[in-house]
Write a structure and sequence with these properties.
- The chain has 137 residues and is an alpha+beta fold.
- The chain has one domain: Heat Shock Protein 90 (2-Layer Sandwich).
- It is built from three helices and five strands.
- It has a five-stranded antiparallel β-sheet with strand order 1-2-3-5-4.
- The two termini are 26 Å apart.
- The model has no long low-confidence stretch (mean pLDDT 88).
Length: 137
Amino acid sequence: MERSFPRDIGALASIFEFVREVFAAESVDAVNAFEVDLVIEELFTNMVKYSSESSNDIAIRIDRKNDRLIICLTDSDVDPFDPTRAREVDTDRPLRDRKPGGLGIHLVRRMTESFDYEYRDRTSIITLVKKLETEGA
């Protein structure tokens, strides 16, 4: 399923509703909702924040392939912004010794099997693969 959302943080509630629709249509266990919401929220928020020159909607596509979700966010008429190149966060260092930022992308990396970025024709495409969990597993 695919849907487009306005380039506005206020669209997050509608995005979460869309995720629930996909879960219902694809029989995805609700135990996966928190992590899927979090990774989409992080990436959508970054697209809004770092590509503010565009007024185009952001498309989100979610497909189920066996025990995986393929999540794709597409942002058009933007300059490149590759979140996969964000520096790794050293979570073992004390907070006072760390630079702010990067924890959201850190969580995206930890919660997904793959996290890829492609840029062509002024379009940023982020593709994630999320292994699905089942209740009680």
